[in-house]
Amino acid sequence: MAITYENGIFWNRTSRGDPEVCELKYLSTLPGVGPNQLVITGIAGQRIRIVRGVLHSQSTTSSDFTYLNGSGGSGIFQAFAPPNSIEPLILELDPTGYFETSVGNGLYVTVLVQSLRQNFGYITYTP
User: Fold this and answer.
1) What is the rounded distance in angstroms from the CA atom of residue 112 to the CA atom of residue 33?
2) Which residues are within 8 A (CB) of 10 and not within 5 positions of it... i.e. 6 or more apart?
């Protein structure tokens, strides 16, 4: 089983051998400071994989954040978002992804210090 990216399309090569198209979806939100905030709702039987992103603080100071595997779950990606006065943190398109949830879990974020602007490209797939 593997996710591949061919001619602009994400494919999930399932254990059954049947290729399935994974639609690239986009999300843009502005979570404020606070713990355990829903970013993407989980889907039964599927994983959420972040394959691209642009992140930065909404103020002149940087923001610390952690993405969580499900509500109150373990941290799966942590970083600092630069202040809005300089270049954002850019996650270039990568079919292998930067982080993903476990099957059925939603993606949550805990934001410290300053609110965060997040723009993501993501796919959902059945492992």
Assistant:
1) 5
2) 3, 4, 21, 22, 23, 24, 51, 95, 123, 125
Which pLDDT score, from 0 to 100, does residue 15 have? 67
Give the separation between CA 97 and CA 83, rounded to whole angstroms. Answer: 24
- Domains of the chain, earliest start first: 27-119 (2.60.120)
**Mean pLDDT, consecutive 10-residue segments, the chain of 127 residues?**
84 78 94 94 96 91 93 94 88 94 97 90 93
Task: Indicate the pTM of the whole model.
Answer: 0.91
Whether the CB-CB separation of 59 and 33 falls below 8 Å is answered with no
Q: How far apart are CA 65 and CA 120, in angstroms?
A: 15
